[in-house]
Design a protein that fits this description.
Elements: H1 7-16, H2 21-28, H3 32-40, H4 47-63, H5 67-70, H6 84-94, E1 98-103, E2 106-112, H7 113-123, H8 125-129, H9 133-136, E3 143-145, H10 150-156, E4 163-167, E5 170-175, H11 177-192
Helix pairs in contact: 2-3, 2-4, 4-11
Length: 193
Amino acid sequence: MFKLPSPEDLRRKRHELHLTQSELAKMAGLSQPLIARIESGDVDPRLSTIKRIVNALNKAEEKRAIVKDIMHSPVIGVSPDEPVMKAVSIMESHGFSQIPVLREGVCVGSISVGLITEYITKYGAESVRNKRVDELMDEPLPTVPTITDLSTVSKMLDTHLAVLVVEMGKVIGVITKHDIMKLISMEEEHENE
């Protein structure tokens, strides 16, 4: 059964998002005094008013989303001393176009389908079977801390297929354009509640 947020729930969420009553009122198309009365429990608002407030809070939360909120974890990668065929197997089985090369949780490079096919075209398929990942790998994927906002990562994804999320120097997650696009379906789920 669906539970309506209490006045305290609304106030707590507004505080978490660092919004003033005036900012929330403007976002929801309501007056600041009405927000104040709802949060204090002085008025019993209509369901449509609550929905407008909840939608405004959800949109504010989405804008303030950070990569840790939507990243994939754990990160699937390959060690630099493993054979290239291991990287090919991982990419094929997971449908990835590239994966990070990790040494003790730190990204030291990346390897991609494009890089491998380019190598095969130049030197032949047999030559790839005898190579280690570190002999073929490319530059590391870019990294960001867990608190990075989505707009920053979105710009990075214009020139990279993926961005790694790091905490204390270790890779803990990965984010792609697909992860950001999933926010659309998450917003729709909120609206249908």
